[in-house]
Amino acid sequence: MAELITMPKLGFDMAEGVLQEWLKKAGDTVTEGETLAVIETDKASVEVPSFRSGVLLEILAEAGSSVPIGNPIAVIGNAGETFDLKALGVEGKTAPAPSSPPQGPEAKPEAGAEEKPAPEAAPQEETAEGGRVLTSPVAARMAAELGIDLRQVKGTGPGGRIIKRDIEDHLREREKAPEKPATPPIPTPSYEPSGEGYSVEALSPIRQTIGRRMVESKQQAPHFYITMDVDMAAAMALRSQLNELVPEEEKISVNDLVIKAAAIGLRQFPRINASFAANEIRIHNQVNIGIAVARETGLLTVVIRDCDLRPLAAIAKEVRALVGRAREGRMKPDDMVGGTFTISNLGMFDVDEFIAIINPPQAAILAVGTVQKMPVVADSGEIVAGTRMKMTISADHRVTDGAEAARFLQAVKAALEQPLRLVL
After folding, report:
1. What is the C-alpha separation between 42 and 418, in angstroms, rounded?
2. 206 vs 95: which has the higher pLDDT
3. Confidence class of residue 126 from pLDDT cuts 50, 70 and 90?
4. Residue predicted with more confidence, 156 or 234
5. Contact, 9 vs 60, CB < 8 A?
6. How far apart are CA 252 and CA 246, in angstroms?
7. Which of 161, 222, 337, 338 has its CA at 20 to 30 Å from residue 288's CA atom?
8. Other beta carbons within 10 Å of 406
9. Spatial separation of the C-alpha atoms in residues 250 and 261, rounded to whole Å
10. Which of 231-245, 264-278, 293-307 has the lowest average pLDDT?
11. Rg of the Cα trace of the chain?
């Protein structure tokens, strides 16, 4: 039976994705789990696997097309099977197929064809249902951020819908238009070092996404912060013993220990394992912990699922695989979605402590510093060498309070200071 393959949702705020390339062509036989295409989001390139075995009957969106999430990109079925696109519900939803003529300002008439004058542009809201402007979610967001009146933008998408490319074209046209004489600005002193200039680096899509989401988080979520010291001597000793028993590629990191300890704490304090949504708090049944991965292009969060149910060795193996794919820029659809809590660890950079910004819509994030030797006061009153690590929770005051967040940190601390709990 023929079925549609649709653009997957690969992130909390993803509205559309770009089909970077097809690894299969129409008529190819595919097996379940085999990679069909590579989708480019504003964060990474993600490999899209086939959800079933069969034959790729038709490709509905060509490489380079920008497709809203949930819209069809291909049809999969059995060899020789006939199918009706309308019966599959494709009509009016399909992205431009390879056979479609070029759209937008770059499109040119065929040789010898008479170029007809364009009709006078009508207000967009008059052609849309209910008097509303037809626009994609990404285009609407861009227009809001850039202060663009959508009624002044000509849509080239299906049914006159305004898409991302139309916003970009409108911006280019606006920049070309002569500016009205403005009142001369009030002179301000220059703070640039004399004799020195600067270079300009355009914001990449991932940096734009990070900036937008972090601004939203700090503006909308009332953050509060709690820091706690952890005695890591026993945890580091256990880690050394475990790593003597496994090969290099299976060794356990400090971050793996923290992930497992945090999972234990989240199971005890489920309101930390939560999200804020409009007028409700969503307490998640699964403990899916995201970890921040630093790349040259920017920060990316990958998700380890069911951390409270998985053994420490399995967590370590999964983290290694996820980080490897993230740094190569070839993620899988489930790698970045579904997180319920995040850990950001800068200990490998010798950072003592820091605070992190909550990854919306999650309720909290844990910032972890380096494990270091330092003088501590023993119970006997003597000053001795100790092994300490600082961790700071940033929490959303709409979801939780200081006492609850502090008890959660105590639970994480107890699991790390009694590390046999991490392997039971």
Report:
1. 41
2. 206
3. very low
4. 234
5. no
6. 9
7. 222
8. 14
9. 19
10. 293-307
11. 26
DSSP string, 134-179: PB-HHHHHHHHHHT--GGGS---SGGG-B-HHHHHHHHHHHHHSPP
Q: How far apart are CA 140 and CA 419, in angstroms?
A: 50
Q: Is 261 exposed, middle or buried (0-12, 13-18, 19+ CB in 10 A)?
A: buried
Whether pTM > 0.85 for this model: the answer is no
Backbone φ and ψ of 223, nearest 5° = -75, 145
- 403, HSE (Cβ side, Cα atoms, 13 Å): 0
Q: Is the pLDDT of residue 97 over 70?
A: no
Active site residues: 397
Take residue 269 and report the two structure tokens written for it. Answer: 């304090």
Q: What contacts 192, CB < 8 A, 6 or more positions away?
A: 198
Q: How far apart are CA 307 and CA 161, in angstroms?
A: 43
pLDDT tens per residue, range 70-95: 888 989 988 888 888 877 877 644 44
Cα separation of 262 and 28, whole Å?
Answer: 45
Q: Which two tokens stand for residue 330?
A: 């070839």
Domains of the chain are 3-77 (2.40.50.100), 125-173 (4.10.320.10), 206-422 (3.30.559.10)
64: number of Cβ within 10 Å: 12
Between residues 262 and 188, which one has the greater pLDDT? Answer: 262
CA atoms within 13 A on the CB side of 253: 15
Question: How many alpha carbons fall within 13 Å on the CB side of residue 42?
Answer: 19
List Cβ neighbours of 159 (8 Å cut-off, separation of 6 or more).
92, 127, 134
* Burial status of residue 48 (CB atoms within 10 A of its CB: 0-12, 13-18, 19 or more): buried
